[in-house]
User: Fold this.
Amino acid sequence: MSDTAKEAWRKYLIQLQAHPLRTKAITAGVLAGCSDTIAQKISGVKRLQLRRLLLITLYGFAYGGPFGHFLHKLMDGIFKGKKDSKTVAKKVLLEQLVSSPWNNMFFMMYYGLIVEGRPWGLVKGKVRKDYPSIQLTAWKFWPIVGWVNHQYMPLQLRVLFHSIVSACWGIFLNLKARSTTIKQA
Assistant:
């Protein structure tokens, strides 16, 4: 690792220690923005849709980072910081039964209502149609991420790890929405 990267990482860890919620919120916002930029470019847009980029970044900053921060603190409190395999399995199961369905539903509603500016009736119909397949796909992918996160990541880095993987998941969701639009055209 270069000296510049090591120094940046050191400063990041200092900020994470001094201001955990703020640092996690900013990190999640930046990664959500990067994810949306990549998704827009992959989907072939000529000019970045800056409003959309700003709203996705805001989602990561205002919801993704803080939600993850408090979820992981709560789970660590419930399970008293245990990291044995049985406890990790319980954490992953709880996360997949409670957090995953809520997060996917909330993102779909936020994206439809706020980012795309569609009326509630259209958003509700799209959620009804697409949510089951998105959630089933999530349950194939996210338990592995959850296992790695709870088993190997220290508490203060779990939101960072989750946000990095969420950036890839966001690209998948954006491309899925795009493929649905193309099929309808």
Remarks:
- The CA atoms of residues 92 and 147 lie 6 Å apart.
- The first helix runs from residue 3 to 18.
- The chain has a mean pLDDT of 91.
